[in-house]
Amino acid sequence: LRLNLSTWVAARETAQALKTLAQAARGVAAATADPATASAMLDSAREVMDGSTMLISEAKQALVAPGDSESQQRLAQVAKSVSHSLSACVNCLPGQKDVDMALKNIGEASKKLLMETIPPCSKSFQEAQSDLNQTAADLNQSAGDVVHASKGTSSQLADASGKFSEDFDEFLDAGIEMAGHTQSKEDQFQVIGNLKNISMASSKLLLAAKSLSVDPGAANAKGLLAAAARSVTDSINQLINLCTQQAPGQKECDNALRELEAVRGLLDNPNEPVNDLSYFDCIESVMESSKVLGESMAGISHNCKTGDVPSFGDCVSVASKALCGLTEAAGQASYLVGVSDPNSQTGHQGLVDPVQFARANQAIQMACQNLVDPGSSPSQVLSAATIVAKHTSALCNACRLASSKTANPVAKRHFVQSAKEVANSTASLVKTIKALDGDFSDENREKCRVATAPLIEAVDNLTTFASNPEFASVPALISREGSAAQVPILQSARSMLDSSTQLLKTARSLVMNPKDPPTWSLLASYSRTVSDSIKSLITAIRDKAPGQRECDSAIDSINKCIRDIEHVSLAAISQNLPTRDDISLEALQEQLMSSVHEVGHLIEPISTAAKGEAAQLGHKISQLASYFEPLHSAAVGMASKLMHHQQQMNLLDQTKTLAESALQMLYAAKEGGGNPKAALAHDAIAEATQLMREAVDDLMVTLNEAASEVGIVGGMVDSIADSMGKMTKSVSGPEELGSLASQVTGDYSQLALQGHLAAATAEPEEIGVQIKLRVQELGHGCIVLVQKAGALQSCPSDSITKRELIEGARVVTEKVSMVLSVLQAGNKGTQACITAASAVSGIIADLGTTIMFASASTLNAETDTDSFADHRENILKTAKALVEDTKNLVSGAASGQEKLARAAQSSATTITQLTDVVKLGAASIGPDDPETQVVLLNAVKDVAKALGELIGATKCAAGKAADDSSMFQLKSAAKVMVTNVTSLLKTVKAVEDEATRGTRALEATIECIRQELTVFQSKDTPVKFTTPEEFIRMTKGITTATAKAVAAGNSARQEDVISTANLSRKVIADMLTACKQAAYHDGVSEEVRGRALLYGTECTNGYIRLLEHVLQVLQRPTAEQKQHLAVFSKRVAGAVTELIQTAEAMKGTEWVDPEDPTVIAETELLGAAASIEAAAKKLEQLKPRAKPKQADESLDFEEQILEAAKSIAAATSALVKSASAAQRELVAQGKVGSIPANAEDDGQWSQGLISAARMVAAATSNLCEAANASVQGHATEEKLISSAKQVAASTAQLLVACKVKADQDSEAMKRLQAAGNAVKRASDNLVKAAQKAAFDKADDENVVVKTKFVGGIAQIIAAQEEMLRKERELEEARKKLAQIRQQQYKFLPSELREDED
């Protein structure tokens, strides 16, 4: 079907193209003055029409009989005929005949190369060599002229192609003349072979020029033409190197000049990439090549002076390569500059590279010529075979890649078929080459010639198919701005080539005559020009780096947005923000969300471009800047419509934060510039990317909340409607309408996949239909509910809408119950398993409680005459019934839901009955034997646990295939169930046998521990987690149980063994649970987790071996057996030690004791620091406003200060406890005296840490009083500043006390010091805020200056008097403070004085 569709599309496109061709042919014929040419054009077009008609007819026949080889062959012949007709039609265009004539002339001239003998020489060797060099230069120049003319008019191309064919004829004659001067036949064959290569390359050049002139916009035409011209130059250079013996250095200069001429075309309108270099790779390439060129130019000059001609030739070759590299880098850089302009359109890579196919085709044809040439030597044959194998392999790989990339089935099949043809013909040719290599006979050479024909044809067909415009690359469209940006780079590169050409010509003459001073002057002048051109090139490339101009423009734009937002924020603060009435709030919100969404999508592309894709940087930056103007406008408009001031400020602040993060991103991107090697800039880009993402997320959260609050529910309704086709899970009603709409949308969107799967797997099929129907009805109800919620939020007072909303909620609730009902009806078995599992879970919990009563000897029989024998038969009978239920459960998993439901219900009923009769039996044993009661109850508890696991496995395996992993888990659970029931039966039988009760209890315990170990070793992550301390506590019970087990083994008393069994079961289970829960805690590393699980397993296995040995001792109580008990107990003890060490490792450095006074102090000090920070910010906001102080404004600030006071009071309380403990320890060690240093005057440092802690508390108290008084207008800012400074000073003294008195390596003290530093910083910030407030207040005070002369003098005198008085008071206050500090300094220990200094 796809093939028929592709054929139909191709036929339709062919008909459309033929219509266009007919119109074009009539136009060309009408515009042609020559009647014969016009007639030929119309005739050839008519042939194309006729052939296309036959082609479509044959294609139709081939579709009817796709396997008919005869119809396929006819189709191929007709297609080839149409291709020839099209070529003939194209040849009738103006200028094409001249190119065809030139091609014909080259073909005729090349026949001279087929002669068997070379004509005798008519010139001397020097004359032949000179002619060859001259004609080579002329031919190379003509090739360049053809390249330029192909982009011009048809007459220019006609002239250039005619001149090229004439120069080729002359060059060919000179080459044949040169071949006559060769010394050996082998050299002569090589010359002729090179001439044939040049002939083929020349034909390719004319064909490429012809194609480009016909369709200048054809994809890859320009690249094919440049490759063909380069091939002509390379072929000429190979011939010159082979057969000329010029004066040393001349050949290298001529080759270099031809190479420079060939690469000059790369600088003509660079709209396609030259290579794969990035922009910064281009800069590096230019730097490297310029360095190499500088060294080689110096070498050229030096070797000319010294006469070292071989070295001169080497330097010229190196300089030529460096110049070619510079030109290629310049062309690639100019392309990247042009394509990076935001107005330019980037091209894209084609499916195949036609240039690669053309080169491979030419190489294969040349190699095949050498293969069939009678004069080829064995080495030349092997070389040609290697070339064929290399290029055919590359073509096959290219076809394979192309077939995997294309979505066109016809093209995919054609590439695969072409690759097969090339591979098969290559294999056939290789066989003949092997035969030829063994025997160079005429017969084998003829076979080889015959074998080359299919290969050449297959490669030609493949190259023609690969040249299809459908597979070609699309060149970039460079804008005017981009072209203008390319000019400096291209001008510098052209100047470099021109001056380099002159330099090489000058060096060529200078090496022959090094004593010519004017030539030396010219060489120096050209060297300076080359050097200046390269410097200019490097500067131009760096200045025109892609994206830099766009970054600067975007930075200016976003800076303007930030300034505008700041102005709007000031207006909002002063309640003067004008409301925007020309657009609705909903429209503004949608515009803002859309803009933020687009900005978020651009973050990653900008980051990627800034790190390594310079060509894309300008485009992405321009897109980002274009979104900020509507984003800023929408944010300001939306803020103006919001009613609450806090909402306005939040929106504007978050918008400004986003703009600032974008600005940081732009600066980082500009610095990175797309350079993949700028590692430092990459770190800044990553950081800016993260900040910008966070800003976008925060703003989107705010906008989503606002959307719910203002009742914008259109998107939610669309989401529910979209989810209707999928079906989902459950709806619940939140408390508020806005969040209800969002919650309904999210919950219904989560029901789809699960509902769809439930409907698909439901039994019977009618249930699935009911599920779909009920879920769809629920969706309709959700849509109505969300719509009514939005309507009510838009008009809260509408009573009708309220009633409709209530009704909608009732309908949704009803639909939810209907969905649940139909789901339960479709999964009776699964639902019954869930119910049974819940019942079993309750039974296990009840048994645990009963075991506690039994352990406390409080489980009594109902009557005094009750005995265990009365209940034994009931227990055995019920246990056997449970075994039958187990079988039914296992078989029910593979059957229908009905059978599974019956089996689950029956098993739940039976385990309930079994538990009841076992509890009665245990009670009948009496409280005098609690250990036996516990053994019996544990046995039935094991059965209940196993049944719970079995029901869970049955639920998972229901409806699964027999080879599913869940079925294996079901079988394993069934085995455990049977094992535990068997163990219960044995225990029941052993209850009345005192000689075996202990042994039976121990066996049951060992089996239980093994099952617990299996659960422990599973990969399931525990639901709950526990602390390492709890884990360590659980390991202590193992030590006790181990000692008890050894004692029981030594005594061999059944009572001791039963007690050991009961205790062992509990402690091992508790340890394994705690071990796994602690190991999977978030803060535990993988290595520590692995150790914990390993040693938990080792400890359990060791304990099992200990219990097994106790069993052996009970059966054979020898002294030797009892001695081994100590060995097993030591192994368990060793494993417990490893477990404890592992638990200690789990703690790490982040685990702290919450009761530690230093930890409490740290927490409280950090809280106090945060409160003081908040108070400082509040003060900074409140003080600058020139408004009367209001009670509610001061209240918030007062509350924050009081909160700080409470936190610091709690911190100092904890500090006093810690300091007291440290003080007592130091006194006990004798490091500190038990009485103050000065008993009469208890100074600041007399009690060390305690005194320092008290100073912090006292200073904080003063700070709170001063702050409250300052806010309420009862005190000055100076008092507040002084109090805050005292807090900072006392905190610093506290830190000094900690440092002197405490252990320097104590982690707790380090954290305590960090918390103290935080309080100090917070206090400093409070001082700055208060000083700013005082400064603002001073600015706001207005001084009334008296206008009278006398009054003015008096005013000045009074002011000066006040100033002098204040200065005197300040000086006195400083002296007083110095005296106080000097008195207190006497009691400061010597070590603290050094720190104080």
Automatic annotation (TrEMBL):
Keyword match Cell inner membrane: no
Transmembrane segments: none
Gene Ontology molecular function: any one: integrin binding
Protein name: Talin 2a
GO biological process assignments: actin cytoskeleton organization; cell-cell adhesion
Subcellular localization: Cytoplasm
Keyword tags: Coiled coil, Cytoplasm
Domain I/LWEQ: 1149-1388
Entries under Pfam families matching the protein: I_LWEQ (PF01608), Talin_IBS2B (PF21896), TLN1-like_RS (PF21865), VBS (PF08913)
UniProt xrefs under InterPro entries: Alpha-catenin/vinculin-like_sf, I/LWEQ_dom_sf, ILWEQ_dom, Talin1/2-RS, Talin_IBS2B, TLN1-like_RS, Vinculin-bd_dom
Stretches of the chain forming a coiled coil according to its record: 1356-1383
GO annotation, cellular component aspect: cytoplasm; focal adhesion; plasma membrane
Native source organism of the sequence: Pygocentrus nattereri (Red-bellied piranha)
Entry keyword Cell inner membrane: no
Domain of life: Eukaryota
